[in-house]
Write a structure and sequence with these properties.
Largest sheet: 7 strands, parallel
CATH class: Alpha Beta
Number of domains: 1
Order of helices and strands: HEHEHEHEHEHHEHE
Structural class: alpha/beta
Distance between the termini: 11 Å
Radius of gyration: 15 Å
Shape: globular
Strand order of the largest sheet: 4-3-2-5-6-1-7
CATH architecture: 3-Layer(aba) Sandwich
Number of strands: 7
Number of helices: 8
CATH superfamily: P-loop containing nucleotide triphosphate hydrolases
Helix content: 40-55%
CATH topology: Rossmann fold
């Protein structure tokens, strides 16, 4: 499969919406991280879909160096309770529904990586629909895309194709620079 992310667009600090079939979303996640890492980027994964511990194992099996990725994990605390942040590696948020804490975490992580080649990857917009209305998700993603543009950082939003309602899909399409349907 050809590159999912165009390296030139990534260098131009573009924001992408990557659509995947439900059965391929894990594979797409790893492929994207592998591509970005090979271009010398540090990726901050905001995960609402898989816990940090699951993603680190998945990335390790895919040959992705662990030092190339850090996490904002909104999946773990809801499943196992209180866990401690690991500075520079993982910052936990209580729930995918806690957009205030997630926004604060994004702001803090971007400050930590200021001056570096960084890309934020949000996995997954579709999972957030379990916790929040499309309207609230749209507002949050608008906030994040503006934050990324103001801080000159690339961003990727991963979603299940046909898993978003038409209005949310329309809004997301207007917030990003490029939509890639990987099937």
């Amino acid at each position: 499969m050809p590159d999912i992310i165009d390296p030139k667009e990534l260098e131009l600090k573009k924001i992408f919406l990557i659509l995947s079939s439900p059965g391929m979303i894990r594979q797409r996640n790893s492929e994207i991280i592998r591509e970005i890492s090979s271009l010398g980027y540090h990726t901050v994964v905001i995960t609402t879909n898989f816990p940090y511990s699951v993603l680190t194992k998945m990335y390790s099996q895919s040959g992705i160096p662990p030092e190339n990725v850090s996490f904002i994990d909104a999946a773990t605390r809801g499943s196992i309770g209180n866990v401690k942040n690991i500075p520079g590696i993982v910052r936990y948020v209580n729930s995918p529904a806690n957009l205030t804490d997630m926004g604060i975490a994004v702001t803090e992580v971007l400050k930590e990586h200021a001056g570096q080649k960084v890309c934020i990857m949000f996995d997954s917009v579709s999972t957030m629909l379990i916790y929040l209305s499309s309207e609230n998700i749209s507002k949050f993603i608008h906030f994040v895309t503006n934050k990324l543009r103001l801080t000159d950082v690339s961003g990727i939003f991963l979603a299940v194709e046909k898993g978003l309602d038409p209005m949310l899909m329309t809004q997301l399409t207007t917030f990003v620079d490029t939509v890639v349907d990987t099937g």
